[in-house]
């Protein structure tokens, strides 16, 4: 049976919602064909059985196959966390410099998604980490050496798609050369198109050549491409650059249209129409029912008024249907694959190959608290709790280290600032310890953390600096006796750091970005 105009438009609109079960309005829209897919966030996740049931409920409500997507990059950006297999994250994968590891990690993530009935992952990030001050990308990037990012990105795409999940290269045409988080405001890049072709576009072109299923277009404005529109709303970026010049005929999708880079400049109705005019196939409105309804109504009206051509909608549906057919829901693995011994072992091997260190000092390393060495640990929590990260509570190095070495004394400094009592305890610990383990998370971005970490290093006798997020803290805080870099604070990376500190693991990783006078 032929689709109505409303059903055609609906297949291009994908939405998010609150809760562990789909609200009635979502089930109603699915039944009527007003939406073509759902995107899941941590607010929708309790455990594997619940997620599988939620996904199935949504699929059963729709008269036609729908797409279910999720941001499961690994590392900092994961929606499936507790109860699922954790990945070291992209920059840690870059530190392994291993395409085999990159593919294996993606295969594990994809296999667990398929067990839940999810067949579209909004990963991998293939942005190049040009800018150390880029808070929203950071360790989500594989590195800043263009050929290596290209090869590792292709390996990640291969791992996802061979395991039966449609991969997404993002954030086209590159989000790595700006310090601005587009969740917060519009980012503008003034670099040349030649630079883009030589660097940022290289991994995207390789992903397209590797038959990546989808490409997510960023809300970054590139002045040399389109001085008027952000990329997601730009025909020059989507139609000309992505489709014609790069030859991509898969699904082009927007980043969430409720991000401030768009919402502060356009209403939901106009932004949805502009995105489709630009050539996007799937439009994401991830949070607000009112905006989702406005976008749907505007798209239908734009076709009825002749602003959008129905033939263009048909082209988008062809691409969407092709992706659905290529990545069917069934047959799927059982839920027993989730956190299986084999999956955990893959992530453990990846973490062990990723962790790196510099200038080891045999007088303090490995730590020997059981022999009377007085070891103190001061750990800074993370400020990085953006809508993209949706991070919640941060896994603590201190809890993992003290399980193995309960003699160690510690102070944990919370994000968003800490009071003088905690600061005094940290100073006392720095003075009294034979060795201070100073664990930072992006002190290079936060003046208060940088200043206090520097003070603690000055007070301490010997310092082992552990960079738990971006490795740039190694340059921001010079003078440590030894530096360990984990390229992210996922559980596998923290466990690897503990093993390094206790002398059980010799680091093999190499920073994939320039640090330590590299």
Main attributes of the structure:
single chain; 518 residues; 2 domains; 19 helices; TIM Barrel; Rossmann fold; 18 strands
If you had to describe this structure to a student in words, what would you say it looks like?
The chain has 518 residues and is α/β, with parallel strands linked by helices. The protein has helices spanning 5-10, 24-32, 48-61, 90-96, 99-116, 146-162, 193-198, 201-209, 235-245, 260-263, 268-278, 289-304, 310-326, 341-354, 397-404, 420-432, 447-459, 473-476, 491-501, and strands spanning 13-15, 37-40, 67-70, 72-74, 77-78, 120-121, 168-172, 188-189, 214-217, 221-222, 251-254, 283-285, 356-358, 375-380, 409-413, 435-440, 463-467, 482-485. A six-stranded mixed β-sheet has the order 13-18-17-16-14-15, with helices on both faces. It has a five-stranded parallel β-sheet with strand order 6-3-2-1-12. Strands 7-9-11 form a three-stranded parallel β-sheet. It is globular, with a radius of gyration of 23 Å. The mean pLDDT is 93.
* Uncertain stretches of 5 or more adjacent residues: none
Mean of residue pLDDT?
93
Rg over C-alpha atoms, rounded to the nearest angstrom: 23 Å
Helix content estimate: 40-55%
**How many alpha or pi helices?**
19
Main pleated-sheet profile? 6 strands, mixed
Name of the CATH first level of the largest domain:
Alpha Beta
Query: What would you call the shape?
Result: globular
Overall strand count: 18
**What is the topology, as strand order, of the major beta sheet?**
13-18-17-16-14-15
CATH topology of the largest domain: TIM Barrel
* Class derived from helix and strand content: alpha/beta
- Named at the architecture level, the CATH assignment of the largest domain is Alpha-Beta Barrel
Query: How many separate structural domains?
Result: 2
Q: Which strand-content bin applies to the residues?
A: 5-15%
Q: Report how far apart the termini are.
A: 62 Å
**CATH level-four homologous superfamily name of the largest domain:** Glycoside hydrolase, family 3, N-terminal domain
């Amino acid at each position: 049976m032929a689709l109505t105009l409303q059903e055609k438009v609906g297949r291009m609109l994908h939405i998010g919602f609150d809760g562990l079960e789909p609200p009635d309005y979502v089930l109603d829209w699915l039944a009527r064909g007003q939406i073509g897919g759902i995107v899941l966030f941590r607010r929708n996740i309790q455990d594997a059985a619940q997620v599988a049931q939620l996904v199935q409920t949504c699929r059963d409500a729709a008269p036609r196959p729908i797409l279910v997507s999720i941001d499961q990059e690994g590392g900092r950006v994961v929606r499936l966390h507790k109860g699922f297999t954790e990945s070291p994250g992209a920059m840690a994968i870059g530190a392994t410099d291993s395409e085999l590891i990159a593919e294996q990690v993606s295969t594990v993530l994809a296999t667990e998604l398929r067990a839940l009935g999810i067949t579209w992952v909004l990963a991998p990030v293939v942005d190049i980490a040009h800018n150390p001050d880029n808070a929203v990308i950071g360790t989500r990037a594989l590195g800043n050496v263009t050929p290596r990012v290209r090869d590792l990105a292709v390996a990640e795409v291969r791992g996802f798609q061979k395991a039966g999940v449609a991969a997404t290269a993002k954030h086209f045409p590159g989000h790595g050369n700006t310090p601005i988080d587009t969740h917060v405001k519009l980012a503008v890049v003034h670099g040349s198109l030649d630079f883009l072709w030589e660097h940022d576009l290289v991994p995207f072109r390789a992903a397209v050549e590797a038959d990546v299923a989808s490409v997510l277009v960023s809300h970054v404005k590139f002045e040399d491409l389109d001085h008027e529109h952000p990329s997601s709303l730009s025909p020059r970026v989507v139609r000309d650059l992505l489709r014609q010049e790069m030859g991509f005929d898969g699904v082009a999708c927007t980043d969430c249209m409720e991000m401030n880079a768009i919402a502060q400049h356009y209403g939901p109705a106009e932004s949805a129409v502009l995105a489709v005019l630009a050539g996007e196939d799937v439009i994401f409105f991830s949070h607000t029912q009112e905006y989702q309804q406005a976008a749907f109504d505007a798209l239908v009206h734009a076709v009825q008024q002749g602003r959008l051509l129905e033939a263009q909608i048909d082209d988008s549906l062809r691409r969407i249907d092709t992706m659905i057919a290529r990545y069917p829901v069934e047959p799927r693995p059982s839920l027993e694959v989730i956190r299986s011994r084999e999956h955990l072992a893959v992530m453990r091997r990846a973490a062990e190959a990723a962790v790196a260190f510099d200038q080891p000092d045999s007088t303090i390393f490995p730590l020997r608290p059981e022999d009377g060495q007085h070891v103190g640990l001061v750990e800074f929590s993370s400020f990085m709790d953006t809508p993209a990260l949706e991070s919640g509570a941060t896994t603590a190095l201190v809890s993992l280290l003290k399980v193995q070495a309960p003699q160690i004394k510690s102070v944990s400094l919370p994000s968003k600032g800490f009071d003088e009592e905690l600061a005094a305890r940290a100073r006392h610990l720095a003075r009294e310890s034979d060795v201070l383990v100073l664990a930072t998370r992006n002190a290079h971005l936060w003046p208060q953390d940088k200043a206090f970490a520097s003070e603690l290093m000055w007070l301490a006798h010997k310092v082992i600096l552990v960079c738990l997020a971006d490795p740039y803290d190694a340059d921001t805080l010079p003078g440590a006796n030894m530096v360990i870099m984990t390229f992210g604070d996922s559980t596998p990376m923290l466990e690897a750091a503990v093993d390094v500190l206790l002398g059980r693991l010799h680091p093999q990783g190499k920073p994939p970005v320039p640090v330590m006078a590299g």
